[in-house]
């Protein structure tokens, strides 16, 4: 790409340039006529302002990769919203690198004065010292903690509820699976809403919905249709949270930090499982099973009230308004041949100046596009082998995860003959192992990517470990009927802990292939991935009532899907960026 001259217009540090400014920039300096059209056709997604020059980069450019040679630059990087890129951030250093079809290239290596290294070294000592993007990630992770607390509370409370209300395994399975009815229904709408209205708004609305519905469970427990409806509403609220979080991560975190960001947010689910399984038995024994739903619902309501003040308004919509062209190109030219419209210099200068926004917050998220012309390329999604592989892998992984999450307390209670408290405590071990594995797997994946390893290879290896490990452990447990019960617990804990490698595999691929449509893609894959929650959880109860076999009801289906998911993933998965509009 050729550098575009800004002529006499100086873009100062602290300013933001909207996409529509490029129509005027492209007709000045070196880039005129056909050259400007070539720039447009290349679908550039990033550009850097340094002094009086504006440098363009291709859509594969990772603006926050760390390189070896640096040149000082105190100007500003400006992100295009064409591919759903991260927000505008300060630039401290720039790497100048030769490349194909480029006269000049610049690459940002730092997005703020506060970095992950600063946190590790202890220079950041309070919440206020954290960079805004870290505040956003940690607060989102807290929402996911509450999310799984409200999910696992039923898997513990179902035991005393079944005894008190006279439910069999089939009814208990239907009560637990009703959550996933709503969870499945809200995935695609959640992805669309996150893209249209921004992830933070959708996340806050979802937390409020599931929290209110959770608090309403005790009053509806004796009327099954109403109880199903309450749990369905909990699922609806929680169903939008993955897409909302994916939207936030795609727009706020660079590729070099993305695995850790995804792992941090989604590991909140494991932390929530641990906290929920710790608190629920104690509260049930001392205050009754109703207290769990009241208390956990209240936590979500408090989170909603404190979210904006904790993160800061600068991260929640006060950033520069960006224009997102419908076609996916960087700008919409006035004519097809790229020739300049007949406007005088003073008018063009005013238009350019009006495109420079000088009062934005340097750390704020770009606002979601409100363009009515921007159509989601649904057909292109379902024609992509990589997307289809993501869909099937998500289905397979969730079959094992949801069925085990819902039935492990009951399994441990029946197989180990434990009371409610001890069964729940044993059920904590797999989520704890997942947290431990995630803390190692995510930095490891990021380190290999930053060292130049192929992103697709890293994602495939992580996903393979995350699928084959639980499959092998379940097979061993199922084929060893005389196994010591506590050895059974250790094996299942190890397998489910290693399954957290998927957070650095499948769950990063949505952002890898298309930051612009990351939330929509996760909505698609999570919609299909929620089906095991509806069918699988209920099916376990039905098969268990008929066969009294945990191997047939719980382990065998999960092993099958883990194995076939591994095969499909390694054949078709890819993390290469895709332009679905073309």
Automatic annotation (TrEMBL):
Q: Which residues form the Major facilitator superfamily (MFS) profile domain?
A: 136-576
Q: Where is this region: Disordered?
A: 96-115, 325-345
Topological type in the membrane: Multi-pass membrane protein
Q: Which UniProt keywords apply?
A: Chloroplast, Membrane, Plastid, Transit peptide, Transmembrane, Transmembrane helix
Task: Give the location in the cell.
Answer: Plastid, Chloroplast membrane
Stretches that traverse the bilayer: 261-280, 292-311, 380-400, 420-445, 457-477, 489-508, 520-544, 550-572
Q: Which Pfam family, any one of them, does this sequence belong to? A: MFS_1
Q: Which CDD domains match?
A: MFS_SLC17A9_like (cd17380)
UniProt organism field: Ceratodon purpureus (Fire moss)
GO cellular component: a single term: chloroplast membrane
Q: Which InterPro entries does this entry report, sorted A to Z?
A: MFS, MFS_dom, MFS_Na/Anion_cotransporter, MFS_trans_sf, SLC17A9-like
The text of the family note is:
Belongs to the major facilitator superfamily. Sodium/anion cotransporter (TC 2.A.1.14) family.
Skewed-composition ranges (Low complexity): 332-345
Could you tell me what this protein is called? Major facilitator superfamily (MFS) profile domain-containing protein
Q: Which PROSITE patterns match?
A: MFS
Molecular function in Gene Ontology = phosphate transmembrane transporter activity
Just give the chief location class. plastid
């Amino acid at each position: 790409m050729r550098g575009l001259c800004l002529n006499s217009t100086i873009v100062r540090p602290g300013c933001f340039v909207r996409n529509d400014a490029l129509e005027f920039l492209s007709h000045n300096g070196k880039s005129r006529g056909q050259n400007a059209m070539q720039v447009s056709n290349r679908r550039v997604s990033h550009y850097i302002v340094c002094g009086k020059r504006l440098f363009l980069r291709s859509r594969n450019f990772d603006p926050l990769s760390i390189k070896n040679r640096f040149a000082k630059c105190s100007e500003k990087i400006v992100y295009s919203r064409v591919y759903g890129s991260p927000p505008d951030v300060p630039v401290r250093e720039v790497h100048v690198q030769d490349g194909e079809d480029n006269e000049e290239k610049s690459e940002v290596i730092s997005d703020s004065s506060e970095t992950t290294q600063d946190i590790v070294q202890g220079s950041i000592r309070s919440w206020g010292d954290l960079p805004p993007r870290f505040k956003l990630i940690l607060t989102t992770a807290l929402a996911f903690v509450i999310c799984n607390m409200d999910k696992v509370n039923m898997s513990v409370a179902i035991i005393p509820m079944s005894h008190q209300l006279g439910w069999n395994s089939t009814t208990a399975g239907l009560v637990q699976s009703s959550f996933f009815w709503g969870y499945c229904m809200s995935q695609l709408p959640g992805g669309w809403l996150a893209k249209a209205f921004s992830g933070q708004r959708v996340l806050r609305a979802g937390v409020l919905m599931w929290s209110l519905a959770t608090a309403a469970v005790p009053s509806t427990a004796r009327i099954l249709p109403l109880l199903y409806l309450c749990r369905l509403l909990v699922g609806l609220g929680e169903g939008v949270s993955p897409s909302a979080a994916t939207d936030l991560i795609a727009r706020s975190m660079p590729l070099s930090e993305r695995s850790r960001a995804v792992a941090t947010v989604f590991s909140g689910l494991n932390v929530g499982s641990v906290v929920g399984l710790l608190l629920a038995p104690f509260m049930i024994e001392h205050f009754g099973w109703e207290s769990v739903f009241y208390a956990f619902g209240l936590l979500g309501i408090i989170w909603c009230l404190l979210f904006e003040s904790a993160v800061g308004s600068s991260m929640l919509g006060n950033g520069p308004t960006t224009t997102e062209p419908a076609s996916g190109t960087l700008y919409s030219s006035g004519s097809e041949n790229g020739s300049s419209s007949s406007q005088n210099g003073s008018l063009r200068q005013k238009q350019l100046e009006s495109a420079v926004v000088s009062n934005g917050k340097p750390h704020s998220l770009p606002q979601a596009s409100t363009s009515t012309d921007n159509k989601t390329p649904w057909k292109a999604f379902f024609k992509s082998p990589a997307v289809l592989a993501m869909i099937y892998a998500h289905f397979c992984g969730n079959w094992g995860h949801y069925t085990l999450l819902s039935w492990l307390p009951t399994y441990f209670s029946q197989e180990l003959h434990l009371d409610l408290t001890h069964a729940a405590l044993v059920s904590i071990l797999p989520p704890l192992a997942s947290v431990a594995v995630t803390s190692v797997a995510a930095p490891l994946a990021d380190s290999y990517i930053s060292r130049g390893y192929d992103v697709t290879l890293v994602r495939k290896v992580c996903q393979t470990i995350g699928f084959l490990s639980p499959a092998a452990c379940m097979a061993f447990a199922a084929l060893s009927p005389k196994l010591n019960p506590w050895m059974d617990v250790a094996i299942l804990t190890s397998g489910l802990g290693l399954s957290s490698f998927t957070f650095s595999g499948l769950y990063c691929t949505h952002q890898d292939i298309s930051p612009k449509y990351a939330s929509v893609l996760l909505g698609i894959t999570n919609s299909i991935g929620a089906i095991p929650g509806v069918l699988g959880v209920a099916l376990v109860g039905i098969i268990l009532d008929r066969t009294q076999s945990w191997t047939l009801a719980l382990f065998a289906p999960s092993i099958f899907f883990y194995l076939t998911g591994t095969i499909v993933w390694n054949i078709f998965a890819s993390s290469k960026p895709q332009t679905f509009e073309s």
